[in-house]
Amino acid sequence: MESTEQPRNVSGSMQSPRSPSSLPYLSVSVTDPVKLGNGVQAYISYRVITKTNFPEYQGPEKIVIRRYSDFVWLRDRLFEKYKGIFIPPLPEKSAVEKFRFSAEFIEMRRAALDIFVNRIALHPELQLSEDLRTFLQADEETMDRFRFQETGIFKKKPADLMQMLWDVQSKVSDAVLGKEKPVEESTPDYEKLKHYIFELENHLAEAQKHAYRLVKRHRELGQSLLDFGKAVKLLGASEGEPTGKAFSDLGTKSELLSIKLQKEAQQVLMNFEEPLKDYVRYVQSIKATIADRGTAFRQHCELAETTKLKEINLDKLMLTRSDKVGEAEIEYREIKAESEEATIKFERIVKRMNEEIMRFQEQKTEEMGVAFHQFAKGQARLANSIADAWRALLPKLEASASV
Amino acid sequence: MMGSENDEESHLHSSRKDMENLVLGDPLTRSDLNGDKSNSGYRSAMSTLSDSRHPSIVVTPADSDPLSAPPSYSDYQTLRSNPIGGDSSYIEPPSYADVIFSPFDDNSEINGSDDGGSRHSHSSDSLSRSPSSLSSDYIKVTVSSPQKEQETTNQMIPGGSTYITYQITTRTNLPDYGGSDFSVRRRFRDVVTLGDRLAESYRGFCIPPRPDKSVVESQVMQKQEFVEQRRLALEKYLRRLVAHPVIRNSDELKCFLQAQGKLPLPTSTDVASRMLDGAVKLPKQLFGEGGGASVVEVVQPARGGRDLLRLFKELRQSVSNDWGGSKPPVVEEDKEFLEKKEKMQDLEQQIINASQHAESLVKAQQDMGETMGELGLTFIKLTKFENDEAVFNSQRGRANDMKNLATAAVKASRFYRELNSQTVKHLDTLHEYLGLMMAVQGAFADRSSALLTVQTLLSELSSLEARAEKLEAASSKVFGGDKSRIRKIEELKETIKNTEDAKNVAIRQYERIKENNWFEVERLDRERRADFLNMMKGFVVNQVGYAEKIGNVWAKVAEETSQYNRESS
């Protein structure tokens, strides 16, 4: 069932205005990652804390335990039900085994999941989802049950089955009708949008790649400074005075700066590279919505055509006063209803997408702005502390030289 | 930029060769430092001393007997009775050739006191290293224009062997050179000859090591690359030679740099054949067959393979030394020497280690700059894209933010690369000293072999004397004397006298080499300290400067995006 309720007016931030209970709010935190289970079965569980005054929810605060696959369930459900809305993306399931449980990875995932749920909670339509309520409130056993039901074709809803049949049928009728290409929307604005999204993904992927490399460069520079510092200290020990002390001071500084670089590397990863990755995921989510829209459009087109054919057929039968008229009329009415529904579905997707695109652009400008600002600040801070550290060494070098 | 074709190798290898390829532009050499840092005060002070320098050098033309060239500063003070290390004069070792043909020749007078004296009055203003040659300012050598030439003897054979010559251009105002600009063509073989002759003439000195023959590399590498690598190595080598306060004035070097046409220095094959003569003469000398070899021939260290008999004796001697046979002359000093030697070896290890990590640091800085630049370019593309496709204002706003970020990233990238090219120049000092540490090893080796020569002669002497005693004892029993036996005794006595003289020469030579060692190591230590402190200072100042620049660039962006500041603090 598609949700057609009116979006609620919700304050976007955690802080409530003057009368705290008057404005509706729904805010979530994903916290306290804990490793559970053993060996290959091991996984991370998170505490999900919901604070809300929505009437549909049980009480002002609720805490549940969730794992990554629960989040995946939620997203899949929302994607199925809310066609046309850009469902917020999830962080990837990690590929590398040994990286799965490193502190940095866990923290990054936690932060990403927190952003994921909050984006849903702040979305005017998505926040009313029943599945969201289940996710935020159901006890763990119920959640497990829901999650296990999701797998396999047999668990698909009738609407999904219908969709699949339509896909197959449309391909057949295309062949019958001698059509080569599937029907596609080709309004100039929509074409432009599609082109934009596909190009954007390429650009962003490249930017993210370089951002990741930059993180690595920070780490490498840090490591080389550490090694250099150690080597220089040994050299100083071998030289003796007066250069010995100078080398020792130089080496110590070098080691100190190495630590600063490692720290900055982590910051760049979390505050710059990760937002870029998220941006890419978002664009991929939009692509999935574009695919959905394509399918809905085809359905709408083909059902409209079929309806027309049925109508023509009915008119023919009526003219010839055939006894098949009754049957044909029933068929015609059924097809017409389906066609109307398909059209409504399609138009809803179009409307949603228009709103979503504007929302998306604004959101991304804000999020990227924050990321750029943090990156620039971090780089400036790093550079300044490097300058300060080396500068402090100069009088010591002068002292050694004048010995 | 950083010799990107050598990126992979330079990161992995520690050899100087790779680092040479990494050097950007014109690396600072000591000779440049000398030239640039001298001031007129020094010049006027030293001009008085320069009068006492050697008379102008006669460079013998190629066709004259190579053995008599170059005659100038051959040192006959060792053959006269000069107090060992009496004055502060820089006593230079005899050239093998000179001694053979003109012993006790008073012609060539050396007064190296300018170098010695100046050394002691050297102010230790270590941060601005005073020029090591004090009587002049400037000598700069450049190697260029490699050219293929045909081996003349093989002209009959089609496609006969070719070789490469390089143009060697010198600019100088050293009075000794009698000219300010000159240019010659030399091939690599000439460089080998130069190196070998210097090694003979300057025993005990820290002579910069000459470039490798690199036989394998010459086959494996691309011709052009190899020639360029070699050209660079030659330039570096020659620049080090002219930076050396004593060697820069050597006849061998002057010859090499100035003499037009064929290099008028004896090649190693010539020297080898003389050695063979020497080896042939030695047994005659030992077994008293008359016509003993000249004293000084004997005094040269035995070279592998050519002077087999003596080599064998010296080996035996060194073994018996180890087993506490005849005691080496002054034990105490040797202990100090051994400590110094060990210290030098440890130092060398640390310099190698430090220069390896310096290479890695340089690479990391370069990579950072590169990636930062690539990031900047990507965002510039994104900016254009968003602007072109913009439907909403939020897109234009984002495009603007990206542009600011991109501009900063590109600027920062440039700064990183500039920082790096400066860093290379400074840290190159470490690589320079790797070469010089090898020179120290050479100097120490000269000393050890001279000592071995002394000890060999000592033990020879004692065994000869023992034989003489025995013969005398035997002949005294026979009344009236056996004519042949008496003759034998006389011959033996003459051999003993020769050996005695040789021993004295060897001892004086050893002492002189020890002194050369000492001076050289002192000089090297002093110069190295100053150079390393300069290096550190330069490195640090560089880092500060560029860190400030980079910081400013990013501070600007932080300012431009301050509306996105979400921090509570």
TrEMBL record, chain A:
Polar residues bias spans: 1-10
| UniProt cross-references to Pfam families, sorted A to Z | PX, Vps5
Taxonomy of the source species? Eukaryota, Viridiplantae, Streptophyta, Embryophyta, Tracheophyta
Task: Cite the PX domain residue spans from the record.
Answer: 24-143
Q: What SUPFAM superfamilies does the record tag this protein with?
A: BAR/IMD domain-like, PX domain
A single GO cellular-component term from the record reads: endosome
| Top-level taxon in the UniProt lineage | Eukaryota
Compositionally biased spans, kind Low complexity:
11-24
Q: Which organism is it from?
A: Cardamine amara subsp. amara
Question: Which residues lie within the region annotated Disordered?
Answer: 1-24
Protein name listed in UniProt: Sorting nexin 1
Checking Gene3D superfamilies in the record gives:
Arfaptin homology (AH) domain/BAR domain (1.20.1270.60), Phox-like domain (3.30.1520.10)
TrEMBL record, chain B:
Please list the coiled coil stretches: 330-364, 454-516
Its annotated compartments are: Cytoplasm; Endosome membrane; Golgi apparatus, trans-Golgi network membrane; Prevacuolar compartment membrane
TM ranges are: none
What biological processes does GO assign it?
Answer: protein maturation; protein transport; seedling development
Domain PX residue range list: 144-263
How does the record classify its membrane topology?
Peripheral membrane protein
Extract the PROSITE patterns matched here: PX (PS50195)
Pfam families, per the entry: PX, Vps5
User: Where is this protein chiefly located?
Assistant: cytoplasm
GO cellular component entries: cytosol; Golgi apparatus; multivesicular body membrane; retromer complex
Write out the ranges of the annotated region (Disordered).
1-136
UniProt keywords, alphabetically: Coiled coil, Cytoplasm, Endosome, Golgi apparatus, Membrane, Phosphoprotein, Protein transport, Transport
Where does this protein have compositionally biased stretches of type Basic and acidic residues? Answer: 9-20
Q: Where is the composition biased (Polar residues)?
A: 36-50
User: Where is the sequence biased in composition, kind Low complexity?
Assistant: 61-76, 124-136
UniProt similarity note:
Belongs to the sorting nexin family.
State the protein's name: Sorting nexin 2B
The organism of origin for this protein = Cardamine amara subsp. amara
